[in-house]
Design brief:
By secondary structure, the chain is an alpha+beta fold. The protein folds into 2 domains: 32 residues; 105 residues, no CATH class. The protein contains 6 helices and 6 strands; from the N terminus they run βββββααβαααα. The strands form 2 sheets. Strands 1-2-3 form a 3-stranded antiparallel beta sheet, with no helix packed on it. The protein has a 3-stranded mixed beta sheet with strand order 5-4-6. β1 and β2 form a beta hairpin.
Length: 175
């Protein structure tokens, strides 16, 4: 490893630590020539499958796009960041286990929906409404009813979708 300060080619490792999630190793290094210290991070590089878009185009997998999908669906929802990170890792792990060189974007969307269903029902409905391109209110209602049928499996893990209390909406009254 070259020193980022003087570009000398000899640096030595002073300390190594595994990160909290176990996926990264942090190494503290010192340059033999100038004595400056710096950190390096080591991760395993595993090739993820390519993505076949709906129009037939092919793209490389982009973890940032995946994370953005989660972030948009979970915008202003009470879900801890570490749970979101774990869900993103689960989707990526599922793609690695898939074993194919390319996967349809639809498959990735289904993995995201499965993860969001476990994290937050509102986020799941948000994502599903865009992902599945509901044509009308009835299709949207059917998806919510399907989610409610699945509720016993995930009940108690998150806030209620519609809540138990119904607050009547009063019409504007003239004063």
């Amino acid at each position: 490893m070259h020193c980022p300060f003087c570009q000398h080619s000899d640096t030595r490792v002073i300390d190594s630590r595994v990160s909290d999630d176990g996926a990264t190793i942090r190494r503290r290094r010192e340059c033999e020539r100038c004595g400056e210290r710096f950190n390096t991070f080591e991760t395993a590089e595993i090739k993820l499958p390519g993505v076949i878009k709906n129009d037939g185009r092919r793209e490389t997998f982009d973890e940032r796009k995946l994370r953005t999908s989660f972030d948009l669906a979970l915008h202003k929802r009470p879900v801890a960041r570490d749970l979101v990170d774990a869900a993103v890792r689960t989707v990526i792990d599922d793609l690695r286990k898939h074993g194919e060189r390319e996967v349809p974007s639809r498959h990735i969307g289904e993995l995201v929906m499965r993860a969001l269903k476990k994290l937050d029902q509102v986020a799941f409905v948000r994502f599903a409404s865009i992902y599945r391109s509901f044509e009308d209110v009835q299709a949207f209602r059917e998806e919510i009813e399907k989610l409610e049928r699945d509720l016993p499996a995930i009940e108690g893990l998150q806030l209620p979708l519609l809540g138990d209390v119904v607050v009547p909406i009063e019409k504007n009254k003239k004063r």
